[in-house]
Model the fold of this input.
Amino acid sequence: ASLKLTMLGLAGYGALKAWKVALQHTWALMKYFVLPRRDLIARYGKDSWAVLTGASDGLGKQYAIELAKQGFNVVLIARNQEKLEGLAA
Done:
């Protein structure tokens, strides 16, 4: 009887954890693919500045491109001068 109760408790705990993970993944999908993006210019105002480090590659580069498209003034900081100049152009 005690073993059955323990197994039932563990199964219930596992089901709750699985439900929590499913909800977290659902929220992430909704947040990034379904819900509208935040209007950062409306939040921070026109003529706002963004300072980005690691802007010559990867995520830093993509953030620089997206923020510039939205109308931010962007300060780029990177170690690779050639890539940085190519991005700034």
The first helix runs from residue 2 to 34. DSSP finds four helices and two strands in the chain.
